[in-house]
Specification:
It is built from 12 helices and 14 strands. With 340 residues, it is of the alpha/beta class.
Length: 340
């Protein structure tokens, strides 16, 4: 049975509506999934007119009422933004609406009425203006699912990265890394890849300092204090974890195939290599959410500079949708999960 994947519209002033409609013109999406947009029907209809595409819109309140056929876009309509919302401008209305889309998707996922969540991009400044003071999607999802131990995972062809820290300054990131956090993220990475079919995944941990400290030559012993005890705890449980490795060569080795996933210590250490492989291929995944909620996302922003210009590439959203299908529970009913 095809999983029902809830697609949140993101910031209505950005490229979210455009890339959603472009992605939903792919027959492959409907072969693999039952896509359900959670957003604003009038904005989607406006975008369809702007793009010159002929699509039907099926506005519903419950996923079980979806048609899920190519050529028809099934929508749960939250009706929160005006039809004349300007493209490419930060607004509190759009930020609030983006949050409410996520909130609705999480509710449906926790009730097992959808089998996964795929998010279009939101704008953090608009989100804050709308009264929701979160650093990003990952933290919103963790809060709404009441999850304490979670992590951001990025996936691109030949490279997967999971993070110890994300949306904090560099000094705060290093300060917040603990042996227990290192162990927990290694454990989450191992569980996620094992569920995805990897046998004993090879997990490599980046060093914090240049050359992973080089035996005390660089830094103040952060690797020995913050990383190694967590790595050793995971190893004692039979997890194939190693490191800390020098980050300047580790990502090359992972792309070459030496490792299945890399544990990055801070935001840019992990994001940079993924984005160097191509924005259109990157997928952002939140792992460890309560009740096994699956969430994937594009690995790019709202692109206000090209919103409304029919220039946005839907490739990353397509990859995110396919990844959501891969990670979703394998048995379904028309109304949701049968046996997760």
């Amino acid at each position: 049975m095809r999983p029902i994947i809830g697609i949140t519209m993101g910031d209505a002033a950005g490229i979210g509506p455009e890339i959603i409609l472009k992605a939903l013109q792919s027959a492959k999406v409907y072969q693999l999934a039952q896509p359900l947009v959670i957003g604003d029907a009038k904005i989607l209809k406006r975008e369809a007119h702007h793009l010159g595409v002929l699509l039907k819109f099926n506005v519903i309140e419950d996923p079980k009422d979806g048609i899920f056929e190519n050529g028809t876009v099934d929508v749960i309509d939250l009706d929160l933004v005006p039809e004349n919302l300007p493209y490419g401008e930060i607004s509190a209305e759009a930020g609030h609406a983006a949050f409410k889309c996520i909130e609705k998707a999480v509710s449906l996922a926790l009730e097992q009425r959808i089998n996964g969540i795929c998010t279009a991009p939101l704008n953090k400044e608009a989100l804050h203006k709308g009264g929701h003071l979160y650093p990003g999607h990952t933290e919103i999802l963790a809060d709404l699912t009441q999850t304490e131990d979670f992590s951001m995972m990025l996936s691109a062809p030949k490279l997967k990265v999971v993070h110890l820290t994300t949306h904090v300054g560099l000094l705060d990131a290093i300060h917040s890394i603990t042996p227990e956090r290192t162990y927990k993220v290694i454990q989450l990475a191992n569980e996620t890849l094992t569920r995805a079919g990897y046998h004993k995944p090879k997990i490599a941990v980046c060093g914090i300092n240049p050359h992973a400290g080089e035996n005390g030559l660089f830094g103040n012993g952060e690797e020995e204090e913050k990383l190694i005890p967590g790595i050793e705890k995971a190893q004692a449980e039979g997890i194939d974890a190693s490191g800390p490795h020098p980050a300047d060569t580790l990502f090359y080795r992972a792309v070459r195939g030496d490792f299945d996933i890399v544990v990055a210590c801070y935001h840019d250490q992990g994001h940079g290599p993924i984005k160097a492989l191509g924005l259109e291929a990157g997928v952002n995944i939140t792992i460890g959410l309560r009740n096994g909620v699956i969430r994937t996302s594009v690995d790019h922003g709202t692109a206000f500079d090209i919103a409304g210009k029919n220039k946005a590439d839907a490739g990353s959203l397509l990859e995110a949708l396919f990844m959501a299908v891969d990670l979703a529970p394998k048995q379904y009913s028309e109304g949701g999960v049968v046996d997760a």
